[in-house]
Specification:
- With 501 residues, the protein is α/β, with parallel strands linked by helices.
- Strands 1, 2, 3, 4, 5, 21, 22 and 23 form an eight-stranded mixed β-sheet that branches.
- The radius of gyration is 23 Å and the shape is globular.
C-alpha cells in the first residue's frame, strides 16, 4: 500500500483496489477500481483512474476492499485484561498449571491471575491442595478457557468470601461472579486496555463488535465515549439482573448512546446452560463416566420465556446462550412462544430436528468457528455419545439460517480471519480437517463476518456506508494458512481511517 494518510483522516478515494465477495453484480471482475468516498459513503466505484479524486487518497496498490468486519460475540473487558494475565492454554496437566501460577507475576492488587486452561482432557484433576502447595498465601485465580469455571487457591477463596469443595473449582454463576469482580477491579485501567485491544481489532479490519461483558455496559460505554473512544461500532448486551433497570431507563435495542451512533444498545443476554469444557452444557445424553450428568439448565424454560417476554415488551432483542442440544431446543421453543427476535449464542450441539427451526423462526446463529478447532478433541471424547450435530455450520447455512461469526474473546482471540479459516477449512496446525462436511464456502464465511451476517450482502456498491477494510489477499481464494495470515492494510469507519499501515 502506498499512502500518506494517517489515522483519523477521511480520504476522498481508495484507488487501485480490487473487489471480491459472493454474488457480485458489478462489471469489474479482477480489474483495478477506485472507490470514491464522501459524507461517510461510497459515492462511486469506477475503473482505476477513470474519475479524478477530490482530495487525498489511500492507494490500495492492488489490494482487495471488503466490507468492514464484525465480531458478534466479545467479552470486551475480560479480553482486554488477558494482556495482564498468565496464559495457561498450553498447560497439559493440573500440576503444570499450578506450577506456572506459582511463578506468575503478582499484579498491583496483590493477586495472581491465569487464564485459558483446559482441564477436560488432563490426566490429573485440579485440587485445592495442589494449587495451595504451588501458590502459597498469594490469592491465585485460574480462569477456564470457557470462563464457566475458575480454580482458586485458599487465599483467593478467603479474599472473595467463598467456599468450595476439595477441587477448589467454582462453576457457572459463582465463577461468573469471580470474573465480574476481577474485571471491575480498576475501571480506568480496564478502559485503557479495552481501547488498546479494540485498536488491535481495527488493525485486523474490524469495524464493530458485540460487547457481552457481564456488567452495566451502558455506563461503561458512556464513560469511554466521554474519554474520546471512536475506534469502532459497539452493540452492548444487557443481563437479566439489569433488565428492569434497562426498561425503566427506556433503553431499546438500536438506541444510540452518542450523536454519531457508534455505541448502541444490543440484546438481553441470557445464559441458559453451561459449557462443553466444564461439562455443564445441557445435553440429551449423559457425559462419559458420569451417568447422572446431563449438564445444567441455568435458566429453567418457564423463566426463560418470562425473561424473553419482558425483554420483547421493552423493545429489546434477545441473545440466548445455548451450547447443548437440550438448551438449544428450549431456546428455540422460547423464541417461538414469545415472538422475540435475536440470536442463539454458540449453538454448539443442535438436534437434527432443530436445525431448520433457526431459519423458520428468524433466529440468528451467533457462532464461533474457532471453538470447533479448539474443542475438536474434547468434542470427540466428551460428546462422543451425543446424537445432535456438533458445530453444525454447513447444516445451519443450508437450512437458510443467518450465521453471525464471533470469537467469544477471550475464549478465542479476536481475529475474524482465524474464524473464517476455521469455518472454511475446519483445521489448524496441519491437522486433517475435522468434520469437513460442516465446512462453509469462503463467500459465506466472509458474509458471516460482516454486520448483517451470512444472508446479508458482502459486496460493495455505491451508496453503501464506507465501513471498509483494505486487505492484502482475496479471502475467497486463500488456503487455510494464508487466510489466517490475512493483513488489513487499512480500515475505515464511515470513511474515517481507524487503521493504516
Amino acid at each position: 500500500m502506498r499512502s500518506s494518510g494517517q489515522r483519523g483522516d477521511r480520504p476522498a478515494a481508495i484507488t487501485n483496489a480490487r473487489l471480491t465477495g459472493g454474488g457480485r453484480l458489478d462489471p469489474f471482475g479482477d480489474a483495478l477500481v477506485d472507490l470514491h468516498l464522501a459524507g461517510g459513503l461510497i459515492t462511486d466505484i469506477a475503473p482505476a483512474g477513470a474519475l479524478a479524486s477530490r482530495g487525498p487518497v489511500v492507494d490500495a496498490a492492488g489490494g482487495w476492499v471488503v466490507p468492514g468486519l464484525w465480531d458478534h460475540h466479545v467479552h470486551t473487558v475480560q479480553w482486554a485484561l488477558v494482556a495482564q494475565r498468565e496464559p495457561l492454554g498450553t498447560a497439559t496437566s493440573a500440576a503444570e498449571a499450578a506450577a506456572r501460577m506459582g511463578r506468575a507475576p503478582v499484579l498491583d492488587d496483590g493477586r495472581r491471575i491465569g487464564t485459558g486452561f483446559r482441564d477436560a482432557l488432563w490426566s490429573d484433576a485440579p485440587t485445592l491442595a495442589l494449587l495451595d502447595a504451588a501458590t502459597g498465601d498469594i490469592p491465585t485465580y485460574l480462569i477456564n478457557s470457557d470462563v464457566h469455571s475458575v480454580w482458586l487457591n485458599s487465599a483467593a477463596l478467603r479474599r472473595e468470601g467463598m467456599t468450595t469443595d476439595a477441587t477448589g473449582l467454582l462453576r457457572e454463576e459463582p465463577a461468573f461472579e469471580v470474573s465480574r469482580r476481577l474485571n471491575a477491579a480498576d475501571p480506568l485501567v480496564g478502559d485503557l486496555l479495552v481501547r488498546r485491544a479494540l485498536d488491535e481489532a481495527a488493525a485486523r479490519g474490524v469495524v464493530g463488535v458485540v460487547d457481552l461483558d457481564m456488567a452495566w455496559n451502558a455506563e461503561a460505554w458512556a464513560r469511554r465515549l466521554d474519554a474520546g473512544f471512536d475506534a469502532m461500532r459497539i452493540r452492548f448486551g444487557i443481563y437479566p439482573p439489569q433488565l428492569e433497570r434497562a426498561i425503566a431507563e427506556g433503553l431499546e435495542t438500536g438506541d444510540a448512546l452518542d450523536p454519531a451512533g457508534l455505541v448502541r444498545v444490543g440484546s438481553l443476554k441470557i445464559i441458559t446452560d453451561g459449557s462443553l469444557g466444564t461439562r455443564t452444557a445441557a445435553c440429551s445424553h449423559a457425559y462419559p463416566d458420569d451417568p447422572h450428568n446431563h449438564g445444567v439448565l441455568t435458566v429453567p424454560p418457564d423463566e426463560l420465556v418470562d425473561l424473553m417476554t419482558r425483554a420483547t415488551g421493552g423493545g429489546l432483542s434477545c441473545a440466548v446462550h445455548a451450547i447443548g442440544d437440550v438448551a438449544n431446543s428450549h431456546a428455540l421453543d422460547a423464541f417461538a412462544s414469545t415472538g422475540a427476535t435475536g440470536t442463539i449464542e454458540h449453538a454448539q450441539l443442535v438436534a437434527h430436528a432443530d436445525i431448520p427451526r433457526f431459519a423458520r423462526l428468524g433466529v440468528g446463529a451467533s457462532v464461533q468457528p474457532e471453538h470447533a478447532i479448539d474443542d475438536r478433541d474434547m468434542t470427540d471424547t466428551i460428546w462422543a455419545q451425543q446424537t445432535g450435530i456438533a458445530y453444525p455450520l454447513r447444516a445451519l447455512a443450508d437450512a437458510g439460517a443467518t450465521l453471525l461469526f464471533g470469537s467469544d474473546a477471550p475464549v478465542s482471540p479476536l481475529d475474524p480471519w482465524a474464524a473464517m479459516a476455521a469455518a472454511v477449512h475446519r483445521t489448524r496446525d496441519g491437522r486433517s480437517p475435522w468434520h469437513p462436511e460442516q465446512a462453509l464456502d469462503a463467500a459465506t464465511a466472509l458474509a458471516a463476518s460482516t454486520a448483517a451476517g451470512s444472508l446479508g450482502r458482502a459486496t460493495l456498491l455505491p451508496g453503501d456506508v464506507a465501513d471498509l477494510a483494505v486487505i492484502d489477499r482475496d479471502p475467497l481464494h486463500a488456503d487455510e494458512p494464508a487466510l489466517r495470515e490475512t493483513r488489513a492494510l487499512a480500515t475505515l469507519l464511515e470513511g474515517r481511517l481507524t487503521h493504516i499501515v
